[in-house]
Amino acid sequence: MEEKVAILGCGWLGFPLARELKDLGYSINGSTTSDHKIKTLKDFGINSFLIKLFEERIKGDMANFLKDVNVLILNFPPNYRENPNQEFIKIINNLSHEIAKQPNIYVVYVSTISVFRKTHPITKYNEEHEPYSEFSKTQQLIEAEKIILRLKNKSSILRLGGLIGEDRHPIKYIAGREKLQNANTPINLIHQNDAIDIIKKLVAQKVRGIFHGVYPKHTSHQEYYSKIAEERGFSIPNYEKDKDKIGKIIESNITQQVLGFDYKYEI
Ligand SMILES: NC(=O)c1ccc[n+]([C@@H]2O[C@H](COP(=O)([O-])OP(=O)(O)OC[C@H]3O[C@@H](n4cnc5c(N)ncnc54)[C@H](OP(=O)(O)O)[C@@H]3O)[C@@H](O)[C@H]2O)c1
Asked: How many Å lie between the centroid of ligand 1 and the Cα of residue 13?
């Protein structure tokens, strides 16, 4: 029987992921919070579900969304723009109760490298480092990972760096800006296609653990964004002289070894 993958959050990363997994022969349940996207998902052969997670409840047909599913990909970020005081941990707790009803589902939680602190001097973090933060929002992200890892289900955490792709690049927002503060901060980015390939490996291999997706090139912000601006015809951003080098470097050698993964899309 064909395997079924449920993607909770068919957004910028989740929608192309859904299409690629569909092309590989998986049956796909995909969710969105937006009425108008239901038809688009259907048009690509995705079984589409209108699901929205709130702090108090889940709106939508979770039971059918998870029915007969082999792999569940949690692929939505907290929404602090719309709801600055959102208690993300409550959302993840509600969700974990639903997931626990289906203990045979393998769960991939797409998290973020924001769980790691920037430091001076720079710290290198690999998959085995324990994240720590004194900030409440980041603490919730760290706790969200722990909730997923505590499930009886086999589960994995994938922490991604800043996502870039054909239609998304930070240079669009920083081109021409003045007095940027982070001249010497190392970059930690990943191309959308590499992120999708790592998730495809997880879906195929169903391994338990913590994984990182960050392209192994960590030049400084100033060097990187000046070069990209020049290549793409944007105005070069201006940086203040940094006294200290503050930031972090996220390594992913363990992920590469365990999954047999090589980055293909140079940053
Ligand atoms: N963007 C980055 O640079 C970055 C960096 C590191 C990690 N990540 C992680 O990568 C994953 C994908 O990010 P993305 O950039 O593709 O996000 P995105 O474009 O904002 O897509 C998020 C998806 O989740 C859905 N969603 C949002 N809030 C929801 C809620 N409360 N309940 C149910 N569904 C909800 C959205 O619904 P609609 O379809 O209605 O919009 C959308 O389909 C996330 O887990 C994020 O934390 C992203």
From this structure: 7
CA of 143 to the centre of ligand 1 (A): 18
Q: Does residue 84 lie in a domain region? A: yes
Dist. CA 162 → ligand 1 center (Å): 13
- Domain assignment of residue 148, given as a range: 4-167+189-215+248-259
CB of 116 closer than 6 angstroms to any ligand 1 atom: no
DSSP letter for 247, please. B
Q: 221 lies in a domain? A: no
Ligand 1 atom nearest residue 15's Cα: 43
What is the C-alpha separation between 235 and 250, in angstroms, rounded? 28
Residue range 92-114, pLDDT digits in tens: 999 999 999 999 999 999 999 99
CA–CA separation, 93 and 144 (whole Å): 8
* Number of structural domains the chain divides into: 1
- Ligand 1, residue 162: give the atom nearest the CA: 3
| Per-residue confidence (pLDDT) for residue 242, from 0 to 100 | 75
Report pLDDT digits (tens) over 117-163: 999 999 999 999 999 999 999 999 999 999 999 999 999 999 999 99
Establish whether the linkage from the previous residue to 121 is cis, with ω within 30° of 0: yes
Q: Is the pTM of this model over 0.85?
A: yes
Q: Give the DSSP letter string of 164-231.
A: EBTTB-THHHHTT-SSBS-TTPBP-EEEHHHHHHHHHHHHHH---EEEEE--S---BHHHHHHHHHHH
Q: State both tokens at 92.
A: 């993840």
**Domain-located, residue 83:** yes
